[in-house]
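Internal QA ticket QA-208
Title: Verify multi-chain structure generation after dependency bump
Assignee: T.L.

Test input:
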Amino acid sequence: MPAIEKPPAFQRDKPLFSSGTGDGQAIVIFVLGGPGAGKGTQCANLVRDYGFKHLSAGDLLREEQDRPGSQYGDMIKTYIKDGQIVPMEVTIQLLENAMTSTIKENGNRKFLIDGFPRKMDQALAFEEKVVPSKFTLFFDCPEETMRERLLNRGKTSGRADDNEESIKKRFRVFVEQSKPVVDHFASKGRVLAVDAKASPSEVYKAVQTGFSERGIDPEKKAEESV
Ligand code: UDP
Ligand code: MG
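Actual output:
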């Protein structure tokens, strides 16, 4: 990836894609919610039933962190451990690269972008440089529930930030920086909010209802279409 100051996405004055599934287009749904709200779990359901490609900003950053020769590895590691938000130039370019290569590989232009935008400047820059989002799917979950889930996950996840101290910082960053993004989109009527306290299958039902209200339907499986 080129120097952090001005990766290719930031040299453009209009988005790379417009919203849609044709040539030069892409569909993006932002998936937000506090750490441990269940974004990854529900994205897996949506991938299975709706044919989206799931892009987790955190996973892409961890991959870049571990990529031999990455000039950003050490920086990413420090930010993640501390629960802070990596400078958006890096994250946005990683997302754009992942979108472009998915389209090239299999023509899929439907993306769930999980755990991004975590900060207002990222939201604006992504919609300006890459593609305007269709809407934001927001998993609304009390902190206590998220904390329990994260500590549980921490027993096996091997993640450097699934521990008491990092979790505290991640909650604070969520409330101070990421929640305002959700509120901004909500004020424009661009958020599908789902209560995320319930069991995964109940939460998924609510997600499906919301998607159907927005005209997004599951893909027919081969065995169902005959
Ligand atoms: N992160 C970031 N920018 C992003 C997404 C993630 O800097 O757009 C970093 C941030 O340090 C965050 C960490 O990656 O705390 C883990 O993010 P992930 O989405 O994997 O965590 P989750 O919310 O799923 O628990
Ligand atoms: Mg996640």
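Spot checks passed. The chain has a mean pLDDT of 95.
Status: verified.
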